[in-house]
């Protein structure tokens, strides 16, 4: 019985070593596939923004709009399928690495980079769907994560502090989810206007200026007496400027100056308008 167990363990060790060798040969290919997928995602994001811009401007015919929607829907489905395939390949390798006690440090670093890239791809796909008004596909669970209702157990202060801490650390996706969970659970909190502002700020940092403007507008409309309203106006102006729409930027900044003339944001807006002229 002992000999049999020893022989079985020897076969298992050889199997794990074989998988390690296979991964060393295929790891670069997997990374190349992820980079290719990210490039396709980037092109799709650009197409989505162009579609939304043409739609708002009324440039497309009804037939042309239907064609673009069908094309984007097909592309998104294909990208979801490709992302799931790559996740499957990743998880197979990750499974064996978890059982290999002496894995190389460089391989672990490559796995982490791939993990982060695939998680980001999943979130970007869903955001594109939301942006063009599609029914979102089921969001892919982050690799290596477990389903947890931990945020349900956090108090109002803990949930806000946790989201703000994630933002300060640069983890924008997790921070956005945290602030959105906070707004859903505590819509009447004293920090609700701050949380809504930070959601807009995250989109601004990601240079998704159209979305940032909409999120800042929620601060202005939902929390008109909050202390973040002047900042929301100011960042809307900056967002329009970054989009090349200086006329709209000037209008927003003048509205800020008119409504909050003594604020620090109004002083910044005054200096910014002088640059426009």
Provide keyphrases for this structure.
Serine Threonine Protein Phosphatase 5, Tetratricopeptide repeat, single chain, 78% helix, Methane Monooxygenase Hydroxylase, Chain G, domain 1, 277 residues, mainly alpha
Describe the overall structure.
The protein has about 280 residues and is mostly helical. The protein folds into two domains: about 1-130, Methane Monooxygenase Hydroxylase, Chain G, domain 1 (Up-down Bundle); about 155-275, Tetratricopeptide repeat domain (Serine Threonine Protein Phosphatase 5, Tetratricopeptide repeat), CATH 1.25.40. The chain has helices at about 1-55, 60-100, 105-130, 155-170, 170-185, 190-205, 210-220, 230-240, 245-260, 265-275. The radius of gyration is 24 Å and the shape is globular.
Question: Could you give the count of β-strands?
Answer: 0
User: What portion of residues belong to β-strands?
Assistant: under 5%
CATH topology-level fold name of the largest domain: Methane Monooxygenase Hydroxylase, Chain G, domain 1
The structure class reads mainly alpha
- CATH second-level architecture of the largest domain: Up-down Bundle
User: What proportion of the residues is helical, as a percent range?
Assistant: over 70%
The residue ranges in which pLDDT falls below 50 over 5 or more consecutive positions are 1-6, 8-18, 138-149
State the shape: globular
Mean pLDDT: 78
Largest sheet: none
Tally of helical segments: 10
Write the layout of secondary structure elements.
Elements: H1 2-57, H2 62-98, H3 105-132, H4 156-168, H5 172-185, H6 192-205, H7 209-222, H8 229-242, H9 246-259, H10 264-276
Helix pairs in contact: 1-2, 1-3, 2-3, 4-5, 5-6, 6-7, 6-8, 7-8, 8-9, 8-10, 9-10
